[in-house]
Write a structure and sequence with these properties.
Blueprint lengths: L6 H11 L11 E2 L2 H11 L6 E5 L5 H6 L5 E6 L2 H10 L5 E5 L14 E6 L5 H9 L5 E9 H7 L10 H9 E9 L4 E2 L6 E8 L7 H12 L5 H6 L4 H10 L13 H10 L2
Parallel strand pairs: 2-3, 2-5, 3-4, 5-6
Antiparallel strand pairs: 1-8, 6-9, 7-9
Bound molecules: S-adenosylmethionine.
Length: 270
């Protein structure tokens, strides 16, 4: 029933429309029906939702999404793809914005919003942060990303992947790794493996500039104690007072602190 994930269809369509795979936009199209079905299951649409698809490409996910009773917003950076999507999905509940998603104000979308995307590898974290840092009411995000980025987003304290990106993301959202997707599920075949991750952003989560600086300073010298690494960016007395208030041993390292401990430290920072 669905055609846009068939390699033959993609080849023909690209030839007919005079398209090329644009590496700079991370254009690796999904050609695996099983992966697409599992993504749809992860989004778990009931009908009536407002959904944003980031980077629809040639529409492999779009055609499945539009099989549901939803309002679908899609942001695609590539003008040539935009022209084709606009023409192919000419229906009232499909709203296409041809633009770099990082330049679109998240608050311009209706709320609550479900976000879905098979994201270009080089800007995955920037895109996730763009939405998490806004005050947009997001019900959930199902994002396919490079396996290594997924490992960082879902890492636990003490692991080598646990760092600034993990803590920031986990302060904003509950994060769950869903499943891996192999390289041969894409056309053209990318160099990296992918993973699908689901995020449930908390409604009241926020992080100001100071909070960000505390997290970045804590991880700036991973091998040093918190006392030392934080003192590279803040006054020593301030650091000692903050750690004492948060009941955190100054001899610990940043990688041993849970996200909740970071939250407490940021909240109680003098
Ligand atoms: N969703 C399609 C699929 O799964 O087959 C395409 C996924 S492909 C990995 C990424 C898509 O995102 C491409 O269509 C690309 O043109 C688009 N894209 C890349 N950078 C973008 C940006 N900054 N804003 C919006 N779309 C972008």
């Amino acid at each position: 029933m669905y055609k846009r994930s068939r390699p033959g269809w993609i080849v023909q369509k690209m030839k007919k429309e005079g398209l090329v795979f644009r590496k700079r936009f991370g254009q690796n199209y999904l050609i695996d029906d099983n992966a697409l079905e599992r993504i749809m299951e992860a989004i778990d649409l009931k009908g009536g939702e407002k959904v944003l698809e980031i980077g629809p490409g040639l529409g492999a996910l779009t055609e499945r999404l539009l099989n549901n009773d939803i309002e679908l917003y899609a942001v695609e950076i590539d003008r040539d793809l935009g022209r084709i999507l606009e023409r192919d999905f000419n229906q009232e509940n499909f709203h296409l914005i041809v633009e770099d998603v990082l330049k679109v104000d998240p608050l311009s979308f209706p709320q609550p919003l479900v976000i879905i995307g098979n994201l270009p590898y080089y800007i995955t974290s920037a895109i996730i942060m763009h939405f998490l840092e806004s005050s947009l009411d997001i019900s959930s995000m199902v994002i396919m990303m490079q396996k290594e980025v997924a490992q960082r987003l879902t890492a636990s304290p003490g692991s080598k992947d646990y760092g600034v990106l993990t803590v920031i993301t986990q302060i904003y959202a509950e994060v769950e790794k869903l499943f891996d997707v192999g390289r041969n599920c894409f056309m053209p075949t990318p160099k990296v493996e992918s993973t699908v991750v689901k995020l449930w952003p908390g409604k009241s989560a926020s992080l100001n500039e100071k909070g960000l600086n505390i997290i970045k300073a804590a991880f700036s010298q991973r091998r040093k104690t918190l006392n030392n690494s934080l003192s590279s960016a803040f006054e020593k007395e301030e650091v000692i007072e903050a750690l004492k208030k948060a009941d955190i041993d100054p001899a610990r390292r940043a990688e041993s602190l849970s996200t909740d401990e970071f939250k407490t430290l940021i909240r109680l920072w003098p």
